[in-house]
Automatic annotation (TrEMBL):
Domain of life: Bacteria
InterPro entries assigned: 3Fe4S_ferredoxin, 4Fe4S_Fe-S-bd, Fe-S_cluster_ET
Keywords in alphabetical order: Electron transport, Iron, Iron-sulfur, Metal-binding, Transport
Protein name (Swiss-Prot/TrEMBL): Ferredoxin
Amino acid sequence: MIAEVDKEECIGCESCPEFCPEVFKMEADGLAVAYTNPVPTEFEEAAKEAAEGCPAHCISLT
């Protein structure tokens, strides 16, 4: 699974690293990034929760 954050849609709410800090982090610009790809199998469920919990709906998982 590959995780991506659409930075043009990201609102910087910090919810994705709260759900899955092993895959998502906040960058200096205040926006999130998926820094672990492919997503390790043991973190796929947490990454899905992060995507579902994103209020901006800017996380895609493929």
